[in-house]
Amino acid sequence: MSPRPAPDLDSRRDQVLRAARAVAESDGWSAVTMRRLAGELGVTQPVLYSAFAGRQALIDAVALRGFGDLAAALEAVDAAPLPRMRAYLDFAAAHPRVYEAMFSMPLGLPFAADDTPEPLRQAFSALHDAFPDADGTRAEVVWSALHGLATLDAGGRLRPAHTQARLDLAHRLLTEQETS
Amino acid sequence: MSPRPAPDLDSRRDQVLRAARAVAESDGWSAVTMRRLAGELGVTQPVLYSAFAGRQALIDAVALRGFGDLAAALEAVDAAPLPRMRAYLDFAAAHPRVYEAMFSMPLGLPFAADDTPEPLRQAFSALHDAFPDADGTRAEVVWSALHGLATLDAGGRLRPAHTQARLDLAHRLLTEQETS
DNA sequence: GACGTTATCTAACGATGCTAGCCTCTGTCC
DNA sequence: GGACAGAGGCTAGCATCGTTAGATAACGTC
After folding, report:
1. How much is the mean pLDDT over chain B?
2. N or C: which end of chain B has fewer CB within 10 A?
3. Is B170 a domain residue?
4. Is the same domain home to B73 and B36?
5. Residue ranges making up the domain that contains B123
6. Which nucleotides of D are covered by protein (CB under 7 A)?
7. Mean pLDDT, residues B139-147
């Protein structure tokens, strides 16, 4: 085996995180066990605990990186309603398990509190930029609608053939004038 | 112990289901273990398997009853947008763990397929009645928005003080004229 | 009163997250 | 050049989970 090459905590954390993401995307989060990840990386379970405090901390890390990726995906397109909506839904569809970790699994991350991690704040800002208003209520509603579309679609709750029609309708409704 | 009183499978299923719902609402789904439920009911674990094929089937049953309750809650109010939106969000807020089982946990239930269980169809119809359109796309978008609002709010992702403002804005946006 | 049926309990299996303790290797200092 | 300290990894194990097989005891019937 590896004699004693390079611990390098950061790169190890990255390896574990990538392995977790890969297993989750292919076989679901229930398959993401510490033993499976250890086997995938060619080490034993206890080694993983030097990178993450536990399974929950690992999932939190995957989710946090997911928020960073989502923010990047949103910022990569024009700060207009339709492009950002499409980017959001594309991200959720492309990485359903990561999206699940971000929103549908119990996390230890704070959200609307003052100590909200930066990637979360950044992702929300990217939405707010495309749907500006005074206090962010509009962005929250937009976010909710997108999240609902993404989640229900991914869960097979909506008719798959109508994905585009739903996006078009949602776009039209959400960009109506706010005539108080 | 009970000598051989009354098996009565239906009532036992009901007992187990209620216990599961109660434990889930108080301590979360991770606390809903077969041993915990058995202890709660004064029986042993294997007895539960005479009522449900396994833990997953039990969760499915809780979710299915939840859809029935949601449909009833929606039908109990006027078939108008705002009352039904409020009823939906109230249900999700009142039974967060049941709602979680219905939408955020892996279920074995079919959804948009032809064999969709009746309670699901009924709940969706109650939304469609309040947001009628030709092919149901509008109702799906409304449903998505409500689901997003309910989920993100329950998960602490949104500012708690603005719940009412979000509902008002969502209502205004979703009831705009559909000028094609 | 004896019997078969049936519901129940006891006990166990495999798998999980996580941890304690030993062992091996690396790098350093004399 | 060689011994030592320390860091990192591995083996083995604990408690808990879902689930199941086999033994046990109570009921209704004849």
Report:
1. 89
2. C
3. yes
4. no
5. 63-174
6. 7-13, 16-22, 26-28
7. 97
